[in-house]
Design goal:
The protein has a domain at 2-66 and 95-165 and 247-321: FAD/NAD(P)-binding domain (3-Layer(bba) Sandwich), CATH 3.50.50.60. 33% of the residues lie in helices and 30% in strands. It has eleven helices and 23 strands. Strands 6, 7, 15, 16, 17, 18, 19 and 20 form an eight-stranded mixed beta sheet that branches. A six-stranded mixed beta sheet has the order 9-3-2-13-23-22. The longest helix has 24 residues, at 299-322. The protein is globular. The relative contact order is 0.19.
């Protein structure tokens, strides 16, 4: 039976970031992932400034990414336009496969063991930790971390799942064209949204969020005629990929020697686009709590603190999705107070968060 202080199920951004945060604190970690890399996921693919800083603090070489910077967010609802810029630098739009490739490389440089093509089959809590059965044999660890996404089997297996509150799904596709804006654009139409993110100097990603109705990406796009016109004639360079349902809930993030991070810890909706930044922050919080106490018990309180403003902002935008008339009235009011909208945006995206402060005194990863 193999030994690792921490076994992490899932090699997406949440799992790798948690492993890197643990490695910086001298804690041996093994990450297992049933898929082979680089890993993909249908998402908006935008990372805010705080998320970019967090990646760099973990040793991820963001300057090597094939990516495109963006300086803020623009909401478009017919003739109504709201936009706000970040206060502390630019975000990055980057394809998820490109980010996965660099995260896996950062893990290799840091000495983190990552076993791709290794599935978690079963696990049980024992005195002193976890015994896990994988497709490559048994592991004993002091902590099992579920970083296995929206439909987290770990969350389900330990009875922490609380179901999805809505049946909203996302469809994402990439187009070969120069980005027309240095902002992430969010186009609203009824109860659907389309996110346009520059992901390279010659490429944009478009993610459409709506209730599941069986329509294709192209059919969903017709709800956004102005956006469809901009994309007309552009070469589609990826197939449509889906994700969801969103608004996944977890009863809590910790039970015994098991903890949840990233989407597995509970997911509001993609309306704020801060999933990666929250995953990085929560992974670092779990690593810090575990390094200080040898237990994940204090992580639940930290997770709630870290995500409080994001969850509140997501709830507001969720109400905007459900009530288009009220949304337009709110947008009209905020359009007259651009400073207020920017402050809300910066708080919701943790624009002022300093990851260097969170890891001060922790040894840097191997280069």
């Amino acid at each position: 039976m193999r030994e690792a202080a921490v076994l992490i199920a899932g090699a997406g951004p949440a799992g790798i970031a948690t492993a890197l945060s643990l490695a910086r604190r001298g804690i041996s970690t093994c990450v297992i992932e049933r898929r082979h890399g680089p890993l993909d996921k249908a998402c908006g693919e935008g990372i805010g400034p705080a998320g970019v800083r967090a990646l760099e603090a973990l040793g991820v070489r963001t300057q090597r990414l094939r990516a495109a910077p963006f300086r803020g967010v623009r909401y478009v609802d017919g003739p109504l336009v709201l936009e706000g810029c970040f206060a502390t630098g630019a975000g990055l739009g980057v394809r998820r496969t490109e980010l996965s490739r660099e995260l896996l490389e950062a893990a290799r440089r840091a000495g983190v063991e990552v076993a791709l093509g290794c599935a978690l089959i079963d696990f049980a809590q024992r005195r002193g930790g976890i015994v896990a059965q994988t497709s490559r044999g048994a592991f004993h660890s002091r902590l099992l971390v579920g970083a296995d996404g929206l439909a987290s089997p770990v969350r389900e297996r330990v009875g922490l799942a609380s179901g999805a509150r809505s049946r909203r799904f996302g469809l994402r596709r990439h187009f070969r064209m120069a980005p027309w804006s240095a902002l992430v654009e969010v186009h609203w139409s009824g109860s659907a949204e389309a996110y346009v993110t520059p992901v390279a100097p010659d490429e944009v990603g478009v993610a459409i969020l709506a209730r599941a109705d069986g329509r294709s990406f192209e059919q969903q796009l017709t709800a956004f005629p102005e956006l469809a016109l901009k994309l007309a004639g552009a070469e589609a360079v990826s197939d449509a990929r889906g994700a969801g349902p969103f608004w996944q809930r977890a009863r809590r993030r910790v039970t015994g020697s098991i903890a949840l991070v990233g989407d597995a810890a509970g997911y509001t909706d993609a309306v704020t686009g801060e999933g990666i930044a929250l995953a990085l922050r929560s992974g670092d919080a779990l690593a810090r709590v575990f390094a200080e106490s040898g237990s994940p018990v204090g992580y639940e309180r930290e997770w709630r603190r870290i995500t409080r403003e994001h969850r509140a902002f997501a709830a507001l935008l969720g109400a905007a999705v459900a009530h288009p008339r009220a949304r337009r009235a709110a947008f009209q009011a905020l359009a007259r107070m651009p400073g207020l909208f920017e402050r809300l945006l910066r708080r919701a995206t943790a624009d002022a968060w300093d990851p260097a402060r969170a890891t001060r005194g922790v040894a840097a990863p191997a280069r």
